[in-house]
Amino acid sequence: MPRLSVIIPAYNEAQRLGPTLDQLRDYFATQSYDAEVLVVDDGSEDGTRALAEARKEDLPYLRVIANDRNRGKGYTVKHGIHEATGDILLFFDADASTPIDQIEKFFPKFDEGVDVVIGSRSLPDSDVQVHQPFYRESMGRIFNVFVQLIVLRGIIDTQCGFKAFRREAAREIFPRQRLEGFGFDVEVLFLARKLGYQIREVPIVWINSPASRVHAVLDSTRMFTELLLIRLNDLRGLYGDSAPAKNSATAPKKEMES
Q1: How far apart (Å, rounded) are the C-alpha atoms in residues 231 and 152?
Q2: CA 158, 161, 167, 170 torsion: positive or negative?
Q3: Is residue 55 within 8 Å of 63, Cβ to Cβ?
Q4: Strands 35-41 and 199-203
Q5: Among the listed residues 2, 156, 173, the one whose alpha carbon sits nearest the alpha carbon of residue 77
Q6: Quick one: what percent of the chain has pLDDT higher than 90?
Q7: CA 83/CA 38 separation, integer angstroms
């Protein structure tokens, strides 16, 4: 069983995926532990899947999985989590905005017994080397205010695409996930909190990719609607009963520590 599974959701990523796979190849060549990389193609139309398949020769630990059609990032990550076999399951954006070596900051937290470790661009020690445009950063801050008010207090950055889960926690969290779009990040963190798993934010290096696929207005509107849907789903009992996790501590104060 590999120590780490890296899950890359990919939709029309033929231009960006190749350099990201190169980064993973070079990094894992220097590591002593076993890892696997899962590229989950979300119905791409630009040759993303063929590119990934062609890289299996120099990346023997690479697996390529395909959705039946374009389903959205939330569904794609959930599909990859279901297929992954590692002890720690990391989902990692195809543009590698957070370099893979940042996982080294996560391992000590898992060794301490933390269940979910997430990268944060907003902690004092975070290193944002290339920023998003001002309007995107502003909208992100406004969105986080609504996250805090409606769904999930105490987590500064819910949207960074660099999140890792202990295998046992992922197997409890992701089957309950219902959102298939960009709002899934908040939903899985909400579920982790509901189930009693400890979440820890860690400062990371982050380099904005100018070719972002998130539409500033349309996707922000959808994500706000999905915040309300998370709360509604919970009130309707669609997430099931909460169950205390072993050795958990869910106080927001502790979750924000780096």
Answers
A1: 10
A2: positive
A3: no
A4: unpaired
A5: 173
A6: 72
A7: 8
Backbone angles phi, psi at 65, to 5 degrees: -125, 145
**Dihedral sign computed on CA atoms, order 223, 90, 68, 43:** positive
Start-to-end CA distance of the chain, whole Å, equals 28
How far apart CA 163 and CA 121 sit, in angstroms, is 12
Is-contact 97 206, C-beta < 8 A? yes
Task: Name the band, by pLDDT with cuts 50, 70 and 90, for residue 134.
Answer: low
Identity of residue 137? E
Query: In this predicted model, what pLDDT tens digit does every residue of 48-95 receive, in sequence order?
Result: 999 999 999 999 999 999 999 999 999 999 999 999 999 999 999 999
Gyration radius from the chain CA atoms:
17
- From CA 35, how far away is CA 40, in angstroms rounded? 16
Residue 255 clears pLDDT 80, i.e. is over it: no
Report the distance separating Cα 14 and Cα 46, nearest Å: 6
* Partners of 6 in beta bridges: 37, 90
- By DSSP bridging, strand 88-92 and strand 4-10 are parallel
Edge-to-edge strand list for the sheet holding 116-120: 62-66, 35-41, 4-10, 88-92, 162-166, 116-120, 199-203
The DSSP output letter for 140 is: H
Token pair belonging to 132? 């998003």
Structure tokens at 64: 């390529």
Token pair recorded at residue 170: 């992922």
- Please name the residue that has the structure tokens 């709002």: 183
Reported as a pLDDT band with limits 50, 70 and 90, residue 224 is confident
